[in-house]
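Handout, section 4.2: multi-component inputs.
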Amino acid sequence: MPPAEPTATLVPRAARVARAWRETHDTWSLELEDPGAPPARPGQFDMLYAFGVGEVPISFSGDLTRVERPIHTIRAVGAVTRALCALGPGDALGVRGPFGAGWPLDAARGRDLVILAGGIGLAPLRPLLYAALAERAEFGRVVLLYGARTPADLLYPAELEAWRRGAEVEVHVTVDAATPEWPGEVGVVTSLIARAELDPTASVACVCGPEIMMTFCARHLLDLGVPPERVHVSLERNMKCALGWCGRCQLGSEFVCRDGPVFGYARATPLLATREL
Amino acid sequence: MRTIEEELAEQGFTRDLRPEHRALIAGCGSLRAFPAGSTIFRAGDPADTFYLLRSGRVALEVYGPSRGALTVETLGPGQVLGWSWLFEPYRCSFDARVVSDARTIAFDGACLRGKAEADHELGYQLMRRMARVFTQRLEATRLQLLDVYGDHAAR
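Output:
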């Protein structure tokens, strides 16, 4: 286990919201003015502190190759995330980070990069997609498989459409439920794996979403023949210190905040399968 | 123009059937096309046909008086449409609406049942393939029921 990064600290930096916008009915994105922020990698997260309310881990969701200000996409589901989503331009918040291990982009070089996202799970994967697009020639196929609850819950619809129209990313989107006005696919995200006609020998898969969704996606990928060491998942546990000190996010011998949140599926499987963890 | 037997040799559902079995069921099939917006069958219709989708997309829908039409699943190339032809009372359970122009191989359900009854090896092979489809759809339905993206699963 590597030691905590030298940038890691328990003292938040003072930051401000530069821009805030609504993504869906319950999800907002914040662009932060955070001048002291160290560079981040796709898959890493910040601890965002809503003063007087609390602190939560939120993944980077913007283009880390170009955009100077960090962007975080937040779903308002609890007291802290609701407080963060209520912030507007100029409002102050605390930031610690970046923390955690990122997506293994280098492992996908020379191979097909398969990005499997469910719900808000697209947010931590979007920087990975941007990073792959910044070096597009380094990869074979770049495939995005994205599932959400309903069409209204789809994140970044304009970008999805732009990627779909372009030739660099193969985009497959599905929703669990829809009315007939929805012109796209209806069905669970696992159904997209067969439709994408992936080459299991060439694919490196990065999966993020609710744990049940990740488990089924990983099983389908393994059934297809993708080796477990080339399937990566992003785990979520209650994180507090983000440094591997407090043990709140301990999963077996791993600290999700420090050793993850991205784990190879071979490592994640026994952790996910143990109910007591 | 390709024969139905040639088409069956390329369809995932029938590709690895023995050639003589493909020839047998080809006799029950015909090529049928449906334009976008049309309805292939409605809930309650007699389920007398089994479709293999060659191209296009079809939505399975259910209608609720207070909710209107709801799409429960969309099906695409290589997928199977309709299994009510297998079991009495042979009634369709959902509406099948064509989302984008669909080309299908349409099999006469009674003809298929008759051939499966006469040749149990063929019947077993067909049922194995249908069972795999049932399993996949059941797993997908369970995942939909779990509502994995709901608030309770928020990340």
